[in-house]
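Input.
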Amino acid sequence: MACLLSMVIFCAEIANTFAQKPSAKPASSAIVKESTKVKNSIVAFLQWYKVNLHEANKFPLLAKDSLGYYAVNKKAADDYLNFMRSSKWVSEKYIAYWIKYFNDKAEMLKKEKLASDMPEGFDFDFVLITQEQELILNKIAQLKSNIISINASTALVSVK
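Output.
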């Protein structure tokens, strides 16, 4: 099982570490400490998501218009993103990514006029980018993470 978790998590503690000496790289012990905080944040977020998965899946992101064509339910998308924001684990950059995603899909659906098949891009979990969330959420403790990059406000982490 491999998954690249598509989440950008903001940790205020990271900004503090990098801001202390802007002209120099942080000491390797500081990077290790911050990497541990980032990994712990991911685990905490996934635990929150596991508890709240049912609630997150209640938002009807797709609806059918008066002619029976699929459309993005923008109110539901906004409510979903506010719900994710309420976790306090996701960044505004993450929220902005999904706002653009839903807006782009809304435009695509206006042009393509789909009535029967599930529109592309709505057949997976938006946090875990999979159809089998349980495979990941039931093994949170066994997940291996690797910091790809880290700076004052963003950490990119692969999770397997």
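The radius of gyration is 18 Å.
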